[in-house]
Amino acid sequence: MRHPSQRQPMTRIRSRSAIFLSLSALAALAGCADRDDQEVERAFQAVNVIEESNLSDIMLTVGDPNEAVAYFARTTRENPEKIELKRGLASSLVRAKRNEEAVNAWREVVAHPQATNEDRVDFADALIRTGNWEEADGVLDAIPPTFETYKRYRLEAMVADSNREWQKADSFYEIAAGLTTKPSGVMNNWGYSKLTRGDFADAEVLFAEAIQQDPTLFTAKNNMILARGAQRKYSLPVMQMSQTERAQLLHTLGLAAVKQGDVETGKALLREAIETHPQHFEEAVRSLRALESA
């Protein structure tokens, strides 16, 4: 075993090493202090951008729409050059159903030098929500045909419908359905287009496809009943439905029968709707009373 005195040189070496490392660290810190603070500022800015981006994503998805509007309105005022904040404000206004304000917000977005074709499609969507079909048509026409998205062609189909350009509408609906993995919504819209044209059989087929894609889509079920009623088909098709939905669909079918002049059939369907509903079906009761009193 070594005598303690024999270990002292090694201890002194370690102490010197520690002192050297400490001095080196201090020198490095001194160098950092003397360095221009721009790098540090840039680092903090990067962190702020990440945090801001995450908060913006949250506001666009799970946040309350009006809270999101307030957030994006404030941050846009603070950073008026950032197009992503302008987009957030415009999108939040659409979610909050403040459509006139949304149009103005999207108009600012598309005027920005960094605006994209996707922004122009969203602008057209906002215009359609306010009934400004003509301007929406012009905005969509200005987008290159090479920009092919589900939303673009769904809007193109809706505009063609508004112009009663049925052949174009059918073509656009078909393209839109092929560009999404969830075509139930566009199939329902397409079916409604056929329904308004009086093509009831084709409408029924499209509504059936929409329901097959999404068995929970009650709008398509109700539209399908309207299409069947217009063809004097007064029975419910085989499809997934709750007891409440069944009662509501029978009510729709009863009213469709009355519209066709088949009043007694309509009354019978309304009585069945009232009996089927698990609770008091006030709307059907009122409809039946009005018919019986007449």
Automatic annotation (TrEMBL):
First and last residue of the signal peptide: 1-30
Transmembrane found in the keyword field: no
Pfam families the record matches: TPR_16 (PF13432), TPR_6 (PF13174)
Superkingdom, taxonomy of origin: Bacteria
Membrane-spanning parts: none
Listed Gene3D superfamilies: Tetratricopeptide repeat domain (1.25.40.10)
TPR repeat start-end pairs: 247-280
Protein name per UniProt: Tetratricopeptide repeat protein
Keywords: Signal, TPR repeat
